[in-house]
Design a protein that fits this description.
6 helices; single chain; 43% helix; five-stranded parallel beta sheet; alpha/beta; binds flavin mononucleotide
């Protein structure tokens, strides 16, 4: 069976990022399962979304990487009760081009409270773009769980991230109708209403 191809996207633009740290941990676990992992590293280059305008090189790369992935793993800080604005902006560029339609996505937020509102907003916007969000995970108080070099050191968090990665690989191999059902469970758990 071919290996699962994963794209990671980090919504934080700060150098010492808790979301980057948990994303790297998940990526390492995914590679341990034989997955191929690419990272979209040009979030800061994505221009403000303007409908009808042509795509920049960074937007083209984002669309191409999403299209060629089996699963997208997104980690975002929560800022003022929502996902990072740079990430929402990048996701807005995908609405018209459609690469997220029926794409498997897993969502994390590492932040003071565990980022429930960031995860809810992420699941809503991804679901409304037609994605199947098959997993979501919040990591509260991440600064106490990550060392100065950006490595996750807390045993419970290490176990949670390992389990999160295992579920991604397992769910990536499920039949599409089961993946859809899994996504409905995640959306319902977070109180996300279907697109009207
Ligand atoms: C402007 C600003 C607003 C924030 N708002 C929230 C918030 O609404 N909820 C929350 O849990 N954390 C909030 N935080 C804390 C961040 O989520 C936390 O610092 C997180 O670790 C940032 O992610 P990063 O380390 O990956 O950059 C906020 C931080 C900043 C700088």
């Amino acid at each position: 069976m071919k290996s699962v191809r994963v794209l990671t996207i980090c919504g934080s633009l700060q150098p010492m990022s808790a979301n980057r740290a948990v994303l790297e941990s998940v990526a390492a676990n995914l590679r341990g399962h034989g997955a191929t992992v690419d990272d979209f590293g040009r979030l800061a280059e994505v221009p403000a979304f303007a409908p009808g305008t042509s795509e920049s090189a960074a937007v083209h790369e984002l669309r191409t990487l999403i299209a060629s992935s089996d699963v997208v793993v997104v980690a975002s800080p929560e800022y003022a009760g929502g996902m990072a604005g740079a990430l929402k902006n990048a996701l807005d560029w995908i609405v018209g081009s459609g690469e997220l339609y029926e794409k498997l996505v897993s969502v994390m937020s590492a932040g003071t409270t565990g980022g429930l509102y960031a995860r809810q907003q992420l699941v809503r916007t991804l679901t409304w773009q037609g994605a199947f969000v098959i997993e979501e995970l919040g990591i509260a108080s991440p600064r106490r769980k990550i060392d100065d070099t950006g490595v996750v050191t807390d045993d419970m968090t290490i176990a949670d991230l390992r389990a999160f990665a295992s579920l991604i690989v397992r769910k990536a191999k499920l039949p599409p109708h089961i993946q859809r059902a899994e996504a409905e469970v995640v959306a319902a758990r977070l109180g996300i209403e279907p697109r009207s």
